[in-house]
Amino acid sequence: MIFSAIKRLKTIFEPDPPEATNYHLHLSGARLASKVQLRQLSVLKHRTTAVVAIRMLLYLIFTLTCWSYVGGWVMALWLAFNVMHTLASMKSADDFFNEPSMDKRFHYWKNRTLQMILVSGLSIGFAGFYFMVPDNVIVEMILLAMIVGVTFGSVPLYAIWLPALWIFVPATLLPTILKLVLIYQPSLFIALFWTLILFLIIFYFGVRLNKIYLQGIYRSFEREFLMEQLIFQRQKADYIREASEMAISARTRFFAAANHDLRQPLQAMGIFISILQGQADQQAKPLIDNLSKACNTVATLVDQILIISKLDSKTMKIRPSEVSIR
After folding, report:
1. C-alpha angle 111-80-97 in degrees, rounded to nearest 5
2. How far apart (Å, rounded) are the C-alpha atoms in residues 300 and 316?
3. N or C: the chain end with fewer CB closer than 10 Å?
4. What pLDDT, in 10s, does the model give residues 269-295?
């Protein structure tokens, strides 16, 4: 029973496998997984700049609001550190998209991104632990609002790539929860229960969002594959059409040259036959007439072949006209 419950929980928090498509059939499992992770990291980096800028704005609002209650060099250093980390995150996103050999340095960028996300989460967690002033409702409310807003607001971003979500959420919430437990000292069971419920809710929605993102990535891969196939088939059709036109043109030139070369001996044969018809006796005249008919048949056949070749190459202009059927 315990194992079945664990298995059921695992199916809830793991994305479903993607549907089989034509694109997936052309890639191995490792290659497809690598391309998916690279696309996830690219989308994450693309959206990081706006998110860290909004997050920095929340840090400034919290600092200005709570400076009179907390203040001190620790808060100044914390704010300066977040400013530098925000600038570093933006610079990292620019360097990522300017990387010339991303496939070879993917593991480097993956580890670097996870490290920066962990540092960002620990910075928020540090604020929740250190700046939480006991018996100061204003600071507690503003600080909790900032931490909850940053955490839940970052779920749609980090749900694109689940390792980032697994790292960021505990780093932001656990220090804050620990400080609240130390201040209000609830029972261990209640603290663990509500902590577990909170993490399950966040991870559940994160995994569901990750499934949606994955389906979108697979659909984009499939569209790219179909577009490549369409371009390839179009180029193939253009090549076949050009080859066919060249073959027809070459055949037309051949038949035109053959017709020209055959007409001269046929005309000579006609002249010789007409001479023979004037000099032949009655006994040889039927043979000469048959020879003349055969020569005329060959000449007609040559003309018909030339006409057919012109029709195939569409070089002959057809001019229809009205005629009387009678």
Report:
1. 35
2. 18
3. C
4. 777 777 777 776 777 777 777 777 887
266: nearest Cα among 302, 236, 295, 293: 295
Q: Give 131-181 pLDDT, tens digit per residue.
A: 888 878 888 888 899 998 899 888 988 998 899 999 999 999 999 999 988
Phi, psi values for residue 218, rounded to 5°:
-65, -35
Compute how many other C-beta atoms are within 10 angstroms of the C-beta atom of residue 79. Answer: 18
Distances (CA, A) of 53 to 60, 153, 196: 11, 13, 30
Contact 114, 163 (CB under 8 A): yes
* Cβ atoms of 148 and 194 closer than 8 Å: no
Whether 177 and 231 have beta carbons less than 8 Å apart is answered as: no
Crossing angle of the two packed helices 2-13 and 188-279, in degrees rounded to 10? 60
- Are 203 and 169 contacting, i.e. CB atoms less than 8 angstroms apart? yes
Question: Token pair of 186, please?
Answer: 């609830």
